[in-house]
Amino acid sequence: MPLRQAFRQRSLMRQHDRRRYQRVKVNLLGRFMLEDRHEYPCQTADMSPGSIALTTPVAGRIGERVIVYIDHIGRIEGTIVRIVDGGFAMTINATLRKKDKLAAKLTWLANRNELNLPEDRRHDRVMPSNPFINVTLPDGREYRARVIDMSLSGAALGVEVQPPLGSPIMLGRLRAQVIRHFEEGIAIEFAAVQTPTSIEESIVP
Q1: Separation CA 12–CA 122 (nearest Å)
Q2: What is the pTM for the complete model shown?
Q3: Residue 80 belongs to what H/E stretch?
Q4: How far apart are CA 177 and CA 191, in angstroms?
């Protein structure tokens, strides 16, 4: 029967994806759009080239189509398959070639901090005219931070609070996430690589 064969083929493809791809824990910021075309912020909890779990303020409904834009990953389309506390899990609709590329990128992202890969060293160091900056946490609390070191892709900040690794924060008007703790404060990574001008305009009052 054609319908039964098609259903079986899709089932076998899903099983193949589960064997082929490993789910990894990555904390990336992004935004997603539901079918009503409303956008909301989100953060990845874990991800594979075939599925993704998101922490979100709105859950949507099972079977709903979702479009997600994730920092360092780009646009992803899929369908909500499970509602969880504080978010949802969704499939990723993509070609095999795109999934293989996504697998390589996820492996790099997952190992970047552990292996201390020198991505930041490729970006020029900058120092804003005012080294004291307001840091805003997801719950709205603000802290005064001192810039210890800054590049076009991130910064080391002297600050009294240490949010959990992967926490999204705002540095002035720049979106970033916490990637490391050290004795004096935290290291953060910007959601996108900046220019000296954009840094100055975004973080200086």
Answers
A1: 43
A2: 0.49
A3: strand 74-84
A4: 7
- Beta bridge partner(s), residue 66: 78
- The residue type of 19 is R
149 CB neighbour count, 10 Å cutoff: 14
CA atoms within 13 Å, Cβ hemisphere of 145: 31
CA angle 19, 104, 25 (to 5 degrees): 70
Please write the tens of the pLDDT for every residue from 138-196: 889 999 998 887 888 888 888 999 998 889 999 988 999 998 887 788 889 888 888 88
Task: Give 108-176 as a DSSP string.
Answer: HHHHHTTTT--SGGGS-B---SS-EEEEE-TTS-EEEEEEEEEBSSEEEEE-S--PPTT-EEEETTEEE
> What is the tens place of the pLDDT at every residue in 48-103?
889 999 988 888 899 999 999 887 788 899 999 999 888 999 999 988 888 888 88
